[in-house]
Design brief:
OB fold (Dihydrolipoamide Acetyltransferase, E2P); 605 residues; inorganic pyrophosphatase (n-terminal core); alpha/beta
């Protein structure tokens, strides 16, 4: 699909002259990422994040002291506490962080996660009733709850208090926000917490920080001094807090929240912890993924750890991943890791099968180039439906919403979206169709109320898509950081880029436009020439480019062609040598094509 290239506006000369101590290239990338170049502190926090300096006080949350005081009371009075977590990576990691801290103070701690297929997302009435019957006095949610007004009220009626830790879309009407005992959410009721983009595990971690740093209760402060680790040594709380960042890091990356501000801090330090993680479960998971001897990066998390942890809830139950994260015995951890690896293989096969079935159902809509794709199936597993929606959405650059009747006739749905179609707000507009719903701008889910006509839900979703999605929203956009010359791709240039790691949502890997370069040679690479390798030249400088899945361009260009190309700068290691690699992201024939020999003549060559 052809993309719309948008080149970032170049930082003007006056600005560059105002900040001569900042490299112009660094200045450009900072401006592209909306980092205030007038604020030296913001620049330092981005390029050189420091945990002690840049982490925010958890008590900036309006409800933090109230939440921590309630937890301390539950610990003192030996009340049963239930962590009610979501079942994805974010919920599993957030539940892990909460459990590991609370279990140091009380053995009356329980973790509950819904079955993705049977119960779905959010707090469930039946589960709340069971928790009350099992003597739970305090529920702490993680990664959900902010859309569950009725369920929270029901818990209160049964004598339980609820503390919500969540980061999802907040209901727009004040009266639709749950009346929980306390809410730890950076965007609820104009909360004064300064960073608004935490993941669900991020909000859980802030609550944990609040517990660790609580000094308003002298008895609890004294109790903290006497808490010991597995070896019987007193816990050093500052260090203990940082060791939790491997879980927070994984959740932050997998939930695709912006890697800016405090999230950037969590991921930068979390990767350090993850590369020497003490968790037996993660060590064994790295082994089954064949990456135990390699440096763990955001890519490792996105493509190896995250999918395996998510496979638990997609194919069996999310608690298996929670057990893996908290298991200390290496042998039991190895068994759990193998189980998740097998589940991930099954998940891939099931995903491919359902993608084919959905595309077959959507064939007419695809041919008609509809603005939004909505499909309903009878036996599509809910656990993989989000993945399927994501794959189809990426392929056709459309919002995709899929519904399934897979569980006893009850209909549940999930969606993935892009520009111009905020799923959480759309589901809120159609809330009269749903028992429950929730999500973000780009991803969300719902459960259809029994008796509601799913075809009517489909028609309403398509109507809103037609109203809200503009033609420009349907063209993929490639945001380019700067136009550069081929000669600029040096090791020094690469080292400048490394200052912006880790890359992710909100801080993408920089993309560069190289205009009017000449093809000196080309060859197909891989099975059936699926990939493309080019030798190119500009101003006498030659470089090699690699384009994965660009093999079709072998028929579109020839030696002497002039092309414009968007690239990423990376490294490639082979047989002990490390070299710079230019990876093609997109390419076009240049508008003014001048054969190489003629250009040499024009240039006086």
């Amino acid at each position: 699909m052809e993309k719309r290239w948008i080149l970032a506006q170049k930082v003007d000369e006056e600005t560059r002259n105002t900040y001569p101590h900042i490299d112009p290239f660094i200045l450009q990338l900072l401006a592209n990422r909306n980092i205030s170049i007038e604020n030296e502190g913001a620049i330092r926090a981005f390029l050189e994040p420091d945990y002690a300096r840049d982490v925010h006080d958890p008590y900036l949350f309006d409800d933090m002291q109230r939440a921590v005081a309630r937890i301390i009371r539950a610990i003192k009075e030996k009340e049963k506490i239930t962590i009610y977590g979501d079942y994805d990576v974010d919920g599993v990691c957030g539940s892990t962080v909460l459990y590991e801290v609370l279990s140091l103070f009380t053995d009356r701690i329980h973790v509950h996660m819904n079955h993705r297929e049977k119960a779905g997302y959010g707090l469930q009435m039946d589960a709340i009733k069971e928790l009350a019957a099992d003597e739970t006095a305090l529920i702490i949610t993680n990664d959900h709850g902010i859309s569950n007004k009725e369920q929270v009220a029901y818990a209160h009626d049964l004598g339980m208090d609820v503390i919500i830790t969540d980061h999802h879309h907040v209901p727009e009407k004040e009266e639709d926000i749950p009346s929980a005992y306390a809410i730890i959410h950076p965007r609820v009721r104009a909360d004064r917490y300064p960073f608004k983009h935490l993941a669900g595990a991020g909000t859980a971690f802030k609550l944990v920080q609040g517990i660790i740093r609580a000094d308003f209760d002298s008895d609890f402060s004294e109790k903290k001094k006497n808490v010991t680790d597995d070896t019987g040594k007193p816990i050093h709380w500052e260090g203990f807090e940082k060791w939790l960042l491997d879980a927070v890091c994984m959740a932050t990356i997998c939930d695709c929240v912006p890697l800016i501000g405090e999230n950037r801090l969590f991921v930068r330090y979390g990767l350090i912890v993850l590369n020497k993680t003490k968790r037996s479960g993660l060590q064994k998971l790295l082994t089954v993924a064949n990456i135990s001897d390699k440096k763990i990066t955001t890519q490792t998390i996105n493509f190896a750890l995250g999918p395996r942890i998510n496979a638990a809830s997609r194919m069996t139950h999310g608690t298996i991943a929670f057990f893996l994260m908290t298991e200390k015995d290496p042998q039991r951890a190895a068994v759990l890791a193998e189980r998740l690896d097998r589940s991930n293989v099954e998940r891939r096969k099931a995903t491919d099968r359902v993608v084919a079935a959905v595309e077959e159902q959507l064939r007419e809509d695809i041919c008609a180039d509809k603005k939004i794709f909505v499909a309903i199936g009878d036996d599509w597993p809910l656990g993989i439906l989000g993945l399927v929606a994501g794959k189809i959405s990426s392929k056709y650059h459309r919002p995709v919403i899929l519904m399934t009747r897979a569980h006893e006739g009850h209909v549940a749905g999930t969606g993935r979206s892009m520009n111009g179609f905020h799923l959480a707000r759309v589901f809120e507009k159609l809330s009269h169709f749903f028992d429950r719903y929730g999500g973000h701008e780009a991803a969300g889910g719902f459960a259809v109320t029994d008796g509601v006509d799913c075809e009517e839900v489909k028609r309403e979703l398509q109507r809103l898509g037609d109203e809200m999605i503009q033609d420009n929203d349907r063209i993929p956009v490639l945001s380019i950081d700067a136009e550069v010359k081929l000669s600029q791709f040096t090791w020094n240039f690469f080292e400048q880029l490394e200052k912006f790691e880790p890359f992710g949502n909100g801080n993408p890997k920089p993309l560069f436009l190289i205009s009017d370069i000449h093809v000196l040679g080309m060859q197909g690479v891989g099975k059936e020439n699926k990939h493309l390798r080019l030798t190119v030249q500009q101003d006498g400088i030659q470089k090699k480019l690699i384009g994965f899945s660009f093999g079709s361009w072998l028929e579109k260009i020839q030696t002497g062609s002039s092309i414009d190309v968007v690239v990423e700068l990376d490294t490639n290691e082979w047989n002990g040598t490390k070299e710079l690699q230019l990876k093609i992201i997109d390419l076009r024939l240049s508008k003014n094509v001048i054969p190489v020999r003629l250009r040499q003549l024009v240039d006086g060559g």
